[in-house]
Amino acid sequence: MRALRERLVDDVEFYFPTGPIELSNDKGQSDYSDEDSLDGSSITWGWWRIDEYGDSKTLEPKTSYEHLASYIREHGPFDGIMGFSQGTNLAANLATFVTLPKYQNYFGQKPFRFGMFFSGYYRALAIDGETHIMKIEMPTLHFLGKFDNVLSTESSTTLIRICEDSQVLFHPGAHHIPSPIAYVEAAADFIDFFGREDWPLVSKNISLIIPTPKPNSLTVSQHTSMHHLGSNNNHLEKELISKIVSRTSKNGVNIVLSNLQMFNEYEDILKNKVSSLVITDGQEPKSFDESVHYVSTFKQALNKLKAREDSIGRIYVIGDKRLLTLGLMCRCTKRIIAVTGAKDKFQMDPSAKSSQIRQWTGQSRLKHLSTDESGEPVTMKLQMWERL
C-alpha cells in the first residue's frame, strides 16, 4: 500500500488494524513468508483460522468483532473501508453490519462511503448468531489478479455480485495488491471521488466520448484497459462527433462536458451545436462565448448539471484521461462511445470475459462513410459500450 499512501499523503489518513488471531503456516492457512511480516518474524495474524471455517459451518469471529469495534471507537469513525484477501470478507460483512443501527452503535461506525477490495471474496459471517445477507450499496472498486492462484475469478464474483455499484479492474499479477502507477492512480481517484463528501448525483445518463488518440495524448481510462490505434482523419472524426452530440432530444438541450484543451480542439463543432461546460482547472480560456459555461472543478461541473438537469436532453463527456476516469466512476455514467478508424482497434480488457463480472458490453453501431483530404473514401466507425 506504500505507493497509494505516498500518492495521497497530504489528503488521506490510512489505518491498518491487525487481526487478533495468531496464525502459523500449518495446513489450511495462507502461505505467507517471513518477508510478509513487518518485524521480520514468522508470526502472522488474521481475523480467523481458515480451518475453523468449513463448508458446513457459519463462522462468527467474536474475538475479531470485539477487537475491531475497540479499534474503530479509538481511531474512527472512517470514511471508507479497504480489504485484501481474507480482509475483504470481513470488510464486506462489516459494511453490511453498520447499515443497521444496532451495530452502528456497537462498532462506533456509520455506513461507509466507499469500499475497495483487492483479491476479494464474500461469505456471510454471523453476528449475534445471525447472518445479514444484504446488498452493499456503497460504491466499490475491485482489483483482481489475472494470475491469482489463491482466489479464482469465480470466487471473487461472490463479492462483486452483492455490490450494487461496483467497478472491476484486472491487473497482470497474482494474489497481491498492484503497485504500478496506473493502478495507484485509479485507486487514488476513486478515494478522492467518493471519500471526501457526498457528490451531487445527476439523474441523466452520461455518455463518455473517446476520440482517436493524438500523438502523445492520454485518452484511455484507467478503469477499463482499453486499446485502440490512432487515425489521422481528424476532420472526419470531428464530423462524426458533431453528429453524435447534436442529435436532437425532446427533453431539452444537449450538454458536452470537457476540459479546456479538448474544448479548444473541438470548439468549431461544439459552439453552434450544443451547450458546452468546460472545466478549466484554473487555466484562463482564450475566449468567452454565451453558449459556454466555465467551471474550475469536476465537482462544480456536476453541481451545475444537477441544477439544470430538468432542461438537459443528453450529457456527453469528452476529455483527457483524468476526466474520463472521473466520468466512469460517476454512477450515472451509462455508456462509452469510441470513435475509430476502419482499421483501428477498441476493445475491453479480454480477461473480463466472464458474464458475472463484465461491467460493460457493446458492439459496433454505426459506420460513417466520407472522404479524406485527398478525396479517398474513408470509413469511420462508432462503437458503443453500455454499462450492464
UniProtKB/TrEMBL annotation:
One Gene Ontology CC term in the entry: cytoplasm
Matching InterPro entries: AB_hydrolase_fold, DHFR-like_dom_sf, FSH-like_dom, LovG
Stored Pfam families: FSH1 (PF03959)
Family annotation (Gene3D superfamilies): alpha/beta hydrolase (3.40.50.1820), Dihydrofolate Reductase, subunit A (3.40.430.10)
Organism taxonomic ancestry: Eukaryota, Fungi, Dikarya, Ascomycota, Taphrinomycotina
SUPFAM superfamilies cross-referenced by the UniProt entry: alpha/beta-Hydrolases
Claim: RNA-binding is one of the keywords in the record: no
Name of the protein this chain belongs to: Serine hydrolase
